[in-house]
Write a structure and sequence with these properties.
8-stranded parallel β-sheet; Urease, subunit C, domain 1; Diaminopimelate Epimerase, Chain A, domain 1; globular; about 525 residues; alpha/beta; 22 strands
């Protein structure tokens, strides 16, 4: 039983309630009277009575990386550093307690502009932290720096050819500097030993608990290696998941339809899984790069002859996406720059033309970062939903200014226009590039605030619209509106309880506002520490 000042059901046109009853994992009844459901109370009933509080559905983060967050629970916490010296000291401390020859990996939720030197470390600098351990520094999902030993173990020399869809960094003299971008990261990453299952489950326990503490009840993890599905299952069986998980199986490093067919064969065991806590949503493709390599129609500001990187040949992408949908799985494809968006819509158009009658929502655009009115209209006409990630823009605006210039950065994630043109739009964080958190995302979409100030205020949306992107819209994308997204009898009791009403509080309060409680299926997964 929950009593509060306001229970926002998010049912269109319905007035707020004051009490909500839960039986089992479902909402059983609501009342406008805070004591209107007291007759439901029995000896075994837990009553949560929080005068002044507001209740909302638990939120979805429709594009994030729980797997990365789970790794980060045990990696070197370089996101705490404010200078390269501190960065190296943290790695050096880990090296002092790590047997020689064992790999050292760092957290990836940091930006180089937060360091005093405003750049990434080099292989030579990582060697100063340790030349007896292979080291891999990750930044987000698209960038890494390896030390000299790691490069040597991977067989990377100055003569190594650049892999398709990747880049091997070099200094001004043409020497390796340790930088690896997109598909080049796989040259090193495949060498890292997988942590033992106990460590992985512990990481997911901590990471999912942290998501829940910000009001996130369901994560759509947009890059899950096939082998990690077993890790997620172990975490679920051990009661270590504090959020629901909808997994997109990663195709990163793949460029051929035959590889996709092999991947799909490995997913067959998950086809009939109907666990409300853990499900496979579909397959994730990467069409273009990220901040440094998103495919654009106009050249980059810092390299006038560079237009970003496309990671797939058009025909291979069409045949691969088609293979996925013909097996009944959904597809989410990363398209960040405007040229990436155009190429993705071309591919999706061909898939739809060759597969008439394909159910709606099978093909999703992840990011659609830089999408003009014509591209948006085309996506809407094709029935393509889009996931946007305002926290990514918030944290990376200054970095992106250097690549794309202020005008293009101002126009990233045009949520206002996507909604006005009739798209199904959902919200996410893209952690570790952006910070996760229900109200942090809402605040960003309402204000368009970033680390460099307000960017593109014309793209801002209302508070109610921002809430919908993480609740009712999100469950539509996932095909779960009959289960979640609104607080109505028969729906899963996924709730968040807030110390102040997020729908009416001062906008400045939203950024760091977290719930006092998060419930999943009627069970508390986050509550105040006693």
């Amino acid at each position: 039983m929950v009593r509060a000042t306001t229970v926002h059901t998010l049912v269109a046109g319905q007035k707020p309630r004051r009490a909500l009853a839960v039986v089992g994992d479902r909402i059983a009844a609501l009342s406008e009277d805070p004591h209107g459901l007291d007759g439901w109370i029995t000896e075994g009933t837990t009553v949560i009575d929080e005068p002044g509080a507001a209740v909302l559905p638990a939120f979805d983060d429709t594009h994030t990386h729980l797997i990365f967050a789970g790794h980060g629970a045990h990696d070197v916490p370089v996101h705490q550093a404010r200078a390269i010296g501190e960065f190296l000291d943290l790695i050096r401390q880990r090296a002092a307690t790590t047997p020689e020859g064992q790999w050292i990996r760092t957290t990836s939720n940091w930006q180089e502009l937060n360091l005093a030197e405003r750049r990434m470390p080099t292989a030579a600098e990582l060697d100063q932290a340790s030349d007896r351990h292979p080291i891999l520094v990750k930044r987000g999902a698209h960038n890494a720096v390896a030390n000299t030993l790691a490069l040597r173990l991977a067989g990377i020399t100055e003569d190594t050819p650049t892999p398709p869809g990747g880049e091997i960094g070099r200094d001004e003299q043409g020497r390796l500097n340790g930088r690896l971008i997109d598909n080049a990261m796989g040259l090193v990453e495949h060498l890292l030993p997988a942590p033992d299952l106990r460590t992985r489950v512990a990481g997911l326990r901590q990471a999912s608990r942290d998501y829940a503490a910000t009001g996130i009840g369901t994560v759509r993890d947009a890059m899950v290696p096939l082998a990690d599905l077993a890790v997620l299952r172990a975490a679920q069986q051990q009661g270590a998941l504090h959020t629901r998980v909808r997994a997109l199986v990663s195709t990163i490093g793949m460029t051929d339809p035959a590889q996709i067919e092999d991947l799909l064969d490995g997913m067959e065991d998950w086809r009939c899984t109907d666990d409300p806590l853990l499900r496979v949503w579909g397959v994730k493709f990467m069409l273009d790069g990220g901040l440094e390599a998103g495919a654009t129609e106009q050249p980059y500001c810092d390299h006038p002859d560079f237009y970003g990187t496309l990671l797939w040949e058009p025909d291979a992408l069409v045949r691969s996406v088609e293979a996925v949908v013909r097996r009944g799985w959904k597809v989410g494809t990363h398209a960040y720059g405007d040229r990436g968006v155009r190429n993705l819509l071309d591919a999706y158009q061909q898939v739809l033309d060759r597969n008439p009658g394909l159910p709606g929502g099978m093909l999703v655009m992840e990011h659609g970062g830089l999408a003009d009115a014509e591209q948006r209209a085309r996506a809407v006409a094709l029935g393509i939903p889009v996931t946007v990630q305002q926290p990514l823009l918030h944290d990376t605006a200054e970095v992106e200014d250097g690549f794309w210039g202020p005008e293009r950065v101002n126009n990233l994630f045009p949520a206002r226009e996507w909604i006005d043109q009739g798209a199904l739009v959902t919200g996410g964080s893209d952690f570790p590039v952006g910070a996760y958190g229900a109200m942090r995302s809402v605040w960003g979409m309402v204000t368009r605030q970033t680390v460099t100030g307000i960017r593109g205020p014309q793209h801002a949306i209302t508070r109610d619209e921002a809430l919908a992107l993480h609740t009712t819209n999100a469950t539509r994308l996932l095909g779960e509106s009959h289960l979640r997204g609104t607080l109505t009898p028969g729906r899963l009791a996924d709730l968040t309880i807030w110390p102040t009403d997020p729908t009416t509080c001062d906008t400045d309060q939203l950024r760091d506002l977290n719930p006092t409680r998060t419930l999943l299926g009627g069970q508390t997964v986050h509550a105040p520490e006693k």
